[in-house]
Write a structure and sequence with these properties.
Oligomer: single chain
Bound molecules: threonylcarbamoyladenylate, magnesium ion
Radius of gyration: 21 Å
Structural class: alpha/beta
Number of helices: 11
Shape: globular
Strand content: 15-25%
Order of helices and strands: EHEEHEHHEEHEHEEEHEEHEEHEHEH
Helix content: 25-40%
Largest sheet: 11 strands, mixed
Length: 359
Amino acid sequence: MGFDRTAEHLIIDPDEIDTELVERAGALLADGGLVAIPTETVYGLGCNALDPEAVKKVFAAKQRPFSDPLIVHVDSAAMVELVVADQLSPTAVRLMEQFWPGPLTIVLPRNDSVPDEISGGLDTVAVRLPSHRVAAAIISAAGVPIAAPSANKFSHVSPTSAAHVFADLGQECDAIVDSGRSENGLESTVVAIDGDDVVILRHGAITMESIANALDGTGRVREPNEPGTSTSSPGHAKKHYSPNAPTLAVTQGLVASLDSQALAALRRRGVLFAGYSDSTATLPEGWQFKSLGSLDDLAGVGHDLYDVLRSVDSDEVSLIVLELTGSDGLGRAIDDRMTRAASSIVIDKPDDLVEAVSS
Ligand code: TXA
Ligand code: MG
């Protein structure tokens, strides 16, 4: 084998869970190893959250700065108590009852058993109870909370299949659990709690609207940029989730408004346009187009987004142009990821797009 440290490939069917392989993954984790695990959102790079050495290995494998804290995954409400400091607030309990197990991450005061490295020096810890059956089984087998960032190299596109994880971290993991494609395809929603209010730190698979519904008038849902909201939101680089090829975002409908001259200029430059099947009709033949699905099916768009971003990212493409959804609900998370993939460069005028492409 020499220096080849390629990860063990553990294929576990969620509908017919192989308990031996689950035990193997759990034992590696309990032992301080790095195991990539499937979740309902994206694949995570798991380690024992209570083992500072294992946590440091995760940061090293991802080349991630310590200022960007990790999410701790639990298998039960009882396991939450291993990492949080105080009694849970009524708002936290309400969110857990409503959305767990599932793609909602809640930031809570942490206790001393959480290694400093996990929380980037903050006095909080982000916790989530995944609904993925294989993730839940592996956490239970490990018997400890599992810290797991998305299993990609820092600032690259998050993985929604085991193949994506092998491509980014095949040499760094002890094992990669393969349960097929991730159901949501977008990361969990991250929230902080401020009294009766809930502050969205990262839009994600659970929409702002459904959180507002769950609060049922007892509190408000706020965005972090709202005046008066000071809750810190680390790890939110303007460039994140990015393909290797240069990437721009355009507002919804911009491409449909391009004239033939502008389209010709873009085509000459080898631009690949990723937009919606709804808008293909306006593109002339021969255009490099990749469909993200239909705007009428945002769940489908979210499911495929990262896979599309990875698949179009090749040497033949000189520039990727992503069309935002301009929608609320899941559209907020999709547009957030596309905007970051584009290093926060969003173009809203045809002339500006032609100029950006020509420069
Ligand atoms: O869906 C997900 O959340 C996936 C799967 C694997 O669970 N995980 C994930 O982890 O997306 P990661 O590391 O890529 O993103 C974690 C983000 C951080 O960048 C930060 O914004 C937020 O969660 N976070 C973590 N701990 C926090 C804390 N103590 N306070 C505020 N934000 C925190
Ligand atoms: Mg990530």
